[in-house]
Design a protein that fits this description.
461 residues, Alpha-D-Glucose-1,6-Bisphosphate, Chain A, domain 3, seven-stranded mixed β-sheet, alpha/beta, six-stranded antiparallel β-sheet, TATA-Binding Protein
């Protein structure tokens, strides 16, 4: 039996093709997915990576071999797959490695209505089944199913996806805007033209050609070097804003008219304010907004100022979606530019967040930097990684350094969070590397730098 723990992560399947997995394993994942979920029908989509069509088709064949009728929607963004799962009320599988380099691929799986499949919600059982069918030499032998073979059909969901998003944001009265979009040769190049069609936008496209080898830059806008081209183009053409999507186009980063990045926390606060107003207009007395513990203090402050309820969670989409379901939250945001909407089956969609930014900017005469200034109240360090062999010992040393300080609180919801009157930091271990990740926020840059340097001195010895 082959050990697949390095391939099957906490939330998805992710690895190098063909070294770590190939079509035979993908076929087994399709069969195991149907076996574990009991699905009678499944929707499957894929991104633009060279290996995606064959892997996606193999999964579909595996699912059909275990009796499921498979709807193949072909090229799509991850949130387009979530739309299909929600609109058709079917479990789904999306073939993508998101922002990873070209040699990687993966599968994001969900139950009907885009409900997540993670280690605690079926992924571990799927992995164990595939392992039991796979010999140590990589040979896969799927046992025959009792059910009659299912069917394979194709369907185009792009227009339906666009129409659904546009039904959730009122863009009818916005002023004309010039917007630069960097698709990074990823799936934004597929979805943006259809979603933006007919809106009063002067669209300046960057890298819209679908190319899973990523010839221009990595499709990972979390890394500042991948925003440089977009920032320059926004300034060059005098655009009102810029938008950058990651490889599978489920995350969106925003650049203001000066070419400066707008923090995902500021976008979370902006969209939260709009979703609170929309929920209130529909009669909801105290809407709930979810934010992870690394988003800025600005987010819960804005939410409370608007009479709504902020709920703080761990980092990660499974925790966000779980808490959204438990609280019936209208919206959730993360520091990594994942944005979750109740009206989008609690799934994350960067495109819907982008439409909210366009609606907010186009609904008033000011610039984006002016609009977002009220949502940018603190100085943040960004994520700082330190290579640490003994993560637990380093974290314990930091905890000890702050445990007896007056007016300081500590919690361990996710890693270690330490907060003073006008500053806080979070220290979290990486799940996959010997790293500790530090995020610091304070009332001003000087205080932020002081706290940052003090913590790093303990972490790095």
């Amino acid at each position: 039996m082959r050990d697949l723990t390095q391939l099957v992560k906490a939330y998805d399947v992710r690895g190098v093709v063909p070294d770590q997995w190939d079509e035979s394993l993908s076929r087994a994942f399709g069969a195991a997915f149907v076996r574990v979920t009991g699905a009678s029908a499944v929707v499957v989509g894929h991104d633009m990576r060279p290996s995606s069509p064959a892997l996606s088709r193999a999964f579909a064949e595996g699912a059909a071999s275990y009796g499921a009728d498979v709807v193949e929607i072909g090229l799509c963004s991850t949130d387009q797959l979530y739309y299909a799962s929600g609109a058709m009320d079917l479990p789904g599988a999306m073939f993508t490695a998101s922002h990873n380099p070209a040699q990687y691929n993966g599968i994001k799986m969900c139950r009907a209505g885009a409900a997540p499949v993670g280690q605690d919600t079926g992924l571990a059982e799927i992995r164990e089944l595939v392992e039991s069918w796979t010999a140590a030499d990589g040979t896969v032998e799927i046992p025959p199913a009792e059910a009659a073979e299912g069917t394979l059909t194709t369907r185009d969901t792009l227009r339906g996806y666009a129409d659904h998003l546009l039904s959730l944001v009122d863009l009818a009265g916005i002023r004309p805007l010039k917007v630069v979009v960097d698709a990074g040769n990823g799936m934004g190049g597929h979805t943006v033209p259809t979603v933006f069609d007919g809106l009063p936008l002067d669209l300046v496209p960057l890298y819209f050609e679908l190319d899973g080898t990523f010839p221009n830059h990595e499709a990972n806008p979390l890394d500042p070097k991948n925003l440089v081209d977009l920032q320059a183009k926004v300034v060059e053409v005098g655009a009102d804003l810029g938008l950058a999507f990651d490889g599978d186009a489920d995350r969106c980063f925003v650049i203001d008219e000066r070419g400066e990045p707008v923090s995902p926390s500021a976008i979370t606060a902006l969209v939260a304010a709009r979703e609170i107003a929309r929920a209130r207009a529909a009669g909801e007395q105290q809407p709930v907004i979810i934010h992870n513990l690394i988003t800025s203090w600005t987010v819960p402050e804005v939410v409370r100022e608007l009479g709504a309820e902020p709920v703080r969670t761990r980092v990660g989409h499974s925790f966000i979606k779980q808490e959204m379901a438990a609280t019936d939250a209208v919206f959730g945001g993360e520091h990594s530019a994942h944005y979750y909407f109740r009206d989008f089956w609690r799934a994350d969609t960067g495109m819907l967040a982008a439409l909210h930014v366009l609606a907010a900017l186009g609904g008033q005469p000011g610039t984006l930097s002016e609009l977002t200034a009220e949502y940018d109240r603190y100085a943040a360090s960004g994520e700082i990684n330190s290579t640490v062999e003994d993560q637990a010992a380093a974290t314990a040393a930091v905890r000890a350094a702050y445990a007896d300080q007056e007016g300081v609180t500590l919690d361990e919801l996710d890693g270690l969070t330490v907060a003073g009157a006008d500053w806080w930091f979070n220290l979290r271990p990486s799940n996959t590397e010997p790293l500790l990740r530090l995020n610091v926020e304070a009332k001003d840059p000087a205080k932020m730098a002081e706290v940052r340097d003090a913590v790093l001195a303990v972490v790095r010895g």
